[in-house]
UniProtKB/TrEMBL annotation, chain A:
Record domain FAD-dependent oxidoreductase 2 FAD-binding: where: 9-40
Record-given protein name: Cholesterol oxidase
Family, as annotated: Belongs to the GMC oxidoreductase family.
Cross-referenced InterPro entries: Cholesterol_Oxidase, FAD-dep_OxRdtase_2_FAD-bd, FAD/NAD-bd_sf, GMC_OxRdtase_N, GMC_OxRtase_C
Organism listed in the record: Plantactinospora soyae
Swiss-Prot/TrEMBL cofactor(s): FAD
One GO process term, biological-process aspect: cholesterol metabolic process
Pfam families: FAD_binding_2 (PF00890), GMC_oxred_C (PF05199), GMC_oxred_N (PF00732)
Segments forming domain Glucose-methanol-choline oxidoreductase C-terminal: 452-507
TrEMBL record, chain B:
Protein name per its UniProtKB record: Uncharacterized protein
The species this protein was found in: Plantactinospora soyae
A family per Pfam: DUF5987
Top-rank taxon: Bacteria
Length: 546, 189
């Protein structure tokens, strides 16, 4: 069944960072806005602490296994902000000067850290993002910090979008924050967009775009069953004068590829230059006695550590290798991280075990010591080597499970450059954590689902060179006026740190230009709304930082 | 033994159980247990509910189990022939394989170059998930029934309302020098 075609000023596809920010500014400026989001719309009280297939935890996730790269992302209103760990650092200055695989500066000339800083400030105020303090760093972060210091390194609690007064350190933040301590988009940009009249439609999966005679676009969607996402219900369409694509770096290029038959040729860079943000994971198993003896750590109850489960994702990072003087591909950050069981244990390899090290007896032995695990997350400089193959029939993957698991068209073959960064980081992690017998550590295997990223980027990137960027520096799709892309796919390459703040800052930066483009298409809209909740957010942020 | 339609039920179960037991090995349920190799002395993936999870239609593998069962036994028979092993034909070929050979075969099937890798990795993924997160039942129920996987990993149970909270969570002090290039907002410069 197909419903009648509606029309509006702006359709936003996806409700993560890119989508929510665009929806808010357009709505606040007076445009009619409809947000189409493929996932469900859950509120705090619906976020369960439950691993059961079909619970909120599996409903809000999308795990797409590709050929050589798997991508984990959010699948709900609020997108990745609902499942993310809310670690929100700015990208270091050297990142914007990177050359990557194209041999010259890959960022548009108009963007640098200095001129992105005001946009970072805006997002930091809206969520808010605060500088975290040592006295509230959970045990796992403390352990990583102590190990770094013992090895002569520095370590930092990075800025985070978490209200620590509300946080109970349950470490369920990947399943959505039950306590509204994590500043997801459900608490700022999205309610503000709603207040200004935007419509948000969950379980609406956009399949493709076609062009209308008036120069606008028709956005075609299917309704997704709210329990079994493999089941698609009726289809519909909405006409818009301007379209903002923000389905995430694993989905935006797929929608564009599928639209190519109707819209005409896409820029070469659509679905190319994908980056996994140079991500790599290591799991360490700590010797509790050595933690006590070497690092002098202990916690109530007589344990030295044994607290992997306690906390809130990453809380301490090491930035020693974020040194712009080092050659490209040798710079990376290390971040302590919690991964819950289920997703986070199968890829961990038992340190020192003979092949197979990811299953069997040595793995079970390792699992017995799970509370003494520490996961270290590397974010390095990869080579933008991911390429999307032909799009699946619907969505961005062939769905295997009713929720969460799918099989997608992304192909990723890490180059020697990427491997150099990973190998250097692995060695650094080993040097820090195995010192004086503190722990045994091994990287996650790439053999099962390829490399693994929670930070997909650059599959439809901005740039000055039409041959290697799908978007101009205003985020408009080359050759297709009126289509803008504001999600992680627009970021040109790996950032060496967590990307959400940069994605958000770029979306904020793109807003004045997108509003102007809407005005040129006859939409009555103005730019200039303050950050959502701005009256108090800045003061709250300052008070928490003090 | 070549499985036929009449005994496909129990043979299928035993074969899939033997696979799950290779991923996370456990103790035998009885001395005559063939599916579980008995390589470890506490409950493994089978006791954790791997079969229940795999058979849930929502997981996406349930429909494939029949063909996985046949294919796995074909591979096992081929493996045995190649390695000169004579298999007892009371049970399906994979079940008849000794633990270390089951392990070697699963390693081959899940290796990057194997054409059916994706299928076997998915089976391993679900076997593991049954053990470490009991994805077929609610976590509260799993903890109440002393689920062997959650017990093995030492998972801390939640508060009475089913939600986890950890009021004690921090060593509470500075444990490393901060990077000298940190900005006033706490970011890398
Ligand atoms: C477990 C986890 C932890 C993370 N932790 C951090 C962290 O600590 N710090 C950090 O900076 N980043 C973190 N990230 C990454 C961060 O969440 C993403 O970088 C960010 O959300 C990307 O924003 P986006 O706008 O590009 O896309 P998303 O936030 O992914 O939003 C895209 C939205 O589009 C929807 N969508 C997809 N296809 C369609 C379609 N066809 N039609 C309609 N809607 C569609 C999706 O459901 C989704 O809601 C984490 C990610 C994960 C998965």
């Amino acid at each position: 069944m197909t419903t009648a075609t509606e029309s509006t000023d702006v359709v936003v596809i996806g409700s993560g960072f890119g989508g929510a920010i665009a929806a808010y500014h357009f709505a606040a400026g007076g445009a009619r806005v409809v947000v189409l989001e493929r996932g469900p719309w859950l509120k705090a009280e619906e976020f369960e602490h439950d691993y059961k297939l079909g619970s909120s935890y599996t409903r809000v996730f999308d795990f797409v296994v590709g050929d050589g790269m798997s991508v984990l992302s959010g699948n709900c209103v609020g997108g990745g902000s609902v499942v993310y760990f809310a670690t929100m650092p700015r990208a270091p200055r050297f990142v914007f000067e990177r050359h990557g695989s194209i041999g010259r500066r890959m960022w548009p000339a108009s963007i640098s850290r200095d001129n992105l800083d005001p946009w970072y400030d805006r997002v930091a105020e809206a969520l808010p993002v605060t500088r975290q303090s040592w006295d509230r760093v959970p045990y796992a972060g403390g352990l990583f910090a102590a190990a770094c210091a013992h090895a002569g390194r520095t370590a930092n609690p990075p800025p985070a979008a978490v209200d620590l007064d509300e946080c109970v350190n349950c470490n369920w933040m990947m399943a959505g924050c039950r306590f509204d301590a994590k500043r997801s988009l459900l608490l700022n940009y999205l309610p503000a967009a709603l207040a200004h009249g935007a419509g948000i439609r969950p379980l609406h999966e956009v399949q493709q775009l076609t062009r209308n005679d008036d120069g606008g676009y028709r956005v075609h969607y299917r309704i997704i069953d709210d329990e079994d996402y493999r089941i698609l219900h009726e289809s519909g369409a909405i006409d818009a004068k301007l379209v903002v694509l923000a389905a995430g770096a694993g989905a935006t290029p797929v929608i564009l590829q599928r639209s190519e038959a109707a819209l005409g040729p896409m820029p070469h860079a659509v679905g190319r230059y994908f980056s996994g943000n140079g991500e790599r994971l290591n799991t360490a198993v700590f010797d509790e006695d050595r933690v006590r003896e070497v690092l002098g750590l202990s916690r109530p109850g007589g344990h030295a550590y044994a607290a992997y489960q306690i906390g809130r994702g990453p809380t301490v990072a090491s930035w020693d290798r974020l040194d712009g003087r080092l050659p490209e591909y040798e710079r990376f950050s290390l971040e302590q991280l919690y991964f819950p069981p289920g997703l986070g244990t199968i890829l961990a390899q038992a340190p020192g075990a003979a092949d197979p090290s990811w299953f069997g007896l040595p793995k079970k032995e390792m699992l017995r010591r799970w509370q003494s695990w520490l996961t270290i997350f590397t974010m390095s400089e990869d080579d933008n080597e991911g390429v999307f193959g032909p799009p699946p029939e619907t969505g961005n993957a062939h769905r295997l499970s009713m929720q969460m698991l799918g099989d997608g068209p992304l192909r990723y073959r890490p180059t020697p450059n990427t491997w150099r960064g990973w190998s250097l980081a692995d060695a650094e992690v080993k040097d820090i954590l195995e010192r004086d017998g503190l722990a045994r550590v091994a990287p996650w295997t790439n053999d099962l689902v390829g490399a693994y990223t929670v930070h997909p980027l650059a599959s439809c990137r901005i740039g000055d060179d039409p041959a290697t960027s799908a978007l101009d520096d205003r985020h408009e799709l080359r050759g297709h006026p009126g289509i803008f892309v504001t999600d992680g796919s627009a970021v040109p390459g790996a950032l060496t740190v967590n990307p959400a703040l940069t994605i958000a800052a770029l979306a904020e930066r793109a807003m004045p230009g997108m509003v102007r483009a809407a005005q040129e298409r006859g939409v009555a809209v103005r730019y200039g709304a303050p950050a959502p909740g701005a009256g108090t957010a800045a003061r709250v942020a300052t008070a928490q930082t003090a | 033994m070549q499985p036929d339609e009449h005994d496909a039920g129990p043979a299928r179960t035993a074969t899939i159980e033997a696979f799950a037991d290779t991923i996370i090995p456990g103790e035998k349920r009885s001395p005559g247990d063939r599916a579980i190799a008995g390589a470890d002395s506490t409950g493994g993936a089978v006791a954790a509910g791997a079969l229940e999870l795999l058979e849930q239609p929502g997981g996406g593998l349930a429909e494939a189990l029949d063909s996985l069962f046949y294919t796995l036994n074909d591979h096992a028979a081929g493996y045995a022939a190649k390695h000169g092993l004579v298999l007892d034909d009371d049970v399906p070929a994979f079940v008849a394989l000794p633990f270390e050979h089951r392990t070697a075969l699963v390693r081959e099937l899940t290796a990057p170059e194997h054409p059916e890798k994706q299928m076997w990795v998915a089976l391993a993924l679900f076997s593991n998930m049954a053990f470490d997160s009991a994805a077929h039942i609610s976590t509260a129920e799993a903890l109440a029934s002393r689920h062997p996987g959650l017990l093995t990993i030492g998972y801390f149970p939640p508060d009475a309302d089913g939600l986890s909270r950890f009021p004690q969570y921090s060593y509470g002090r500075v444990l490393a020098p901060s990077h000298p290039q940190t900005t006033v907002t706490g970011d890398p410069a």
